């Protein structure tokens, strides 16, 4: 608990002067002012987070947290629970969509077992920080203890600190855990006020029958656990997963050291809601990536005050949307640094009227 409290305490305010310097430089470049639209805002906000008035392309880390969810026993996913393990091995071998887009974005991938329900084979790319063998079935009581929730958060903080110490300056959130969209729907319902009927989506592509079961599971979890919206640890322990806890910890650990996090889809945004509830200042270090096809995602982003830079109907998760958003940030930084100013190019500036 001490690491969590100290990390929250250490989150600094953003550097508005650095953000303003970026805006001034964009205005001096050989283009109409503001003509790069949200790309300019994205880079200015990033500069405010890092405190760099002329930011460089950051070294990127995709942190993937893997953990199983007890609610999966109800058949709320299109895939059996064994897929969590199988996909972790797929990530380790480099064959998943997350790996492909991480490579495309120039991000190194850190795969962390925080709660997979079986022991995984040792692998040089696997970080074993297992807290438990999956969560409990939250339709019958809390998914985890409050102490386990704190431990999950602190694992994320420790992974963030490890990456920052190695020179990484930007995080992308990724996850794997069959049942995690069900947990996220419950978390979203608490923090957004949406009824479960509007928070529960099709996740892995389930049909109407499974969707009904999934909705009933979320309704039952909320009824049985009565989570306290004003107590993020209560919400996390009763409804969350170790993957979600770990990702929330990465956000907090990054924020405390001025390292921004690109928030991926609905599950990562559920983790962001937990992080923001624990530490409102952490919102200032989050970058929205894309608008998920999951129904609650837009409202979740609105509550966080985040704007998605992409809307492509994606719902894969695993950090895929975050990777695409990182390439846009890189493009904006390259324009800022490499494009000529009016003075350098000898181009006349626009005359005010």
TrEMBL record:
One term of GO molecular function: nicotinate-nucleotide-dimethylbenzimidazole phosphoribosyltransferase activity
Group of enzyme by EC: transferase
Pathway: Nucleoside biosynthesis; alpha-ribazole biosynthesis; alpha-ribazole from 5,6-dimethylbenzimidazole: step 1/2
Catalytic-site annotation from UniProt: 318
Record InterPro entries: Nict_dMeBzImd_PRibTrfase, Nict_dMeBzImd_PRibTrfase_bact, Nict_dMeBzImd_PRibTrfase_N, Nict_dMeBzImd_PRibTrfase_sf
PANTHER family: NICOTINATE-NUCLEOTIDE--DIMETHYLBENZIMIDAZOLE PHOSPHORIBOSYLTRANSFERASE (PTHR43463)
Protein name: Nicotinate-nucleotide--dimethylbenzimidazole phosphoribosyltransferase
Source organism of the structure: Thermosinus carboxydivorans Nor1
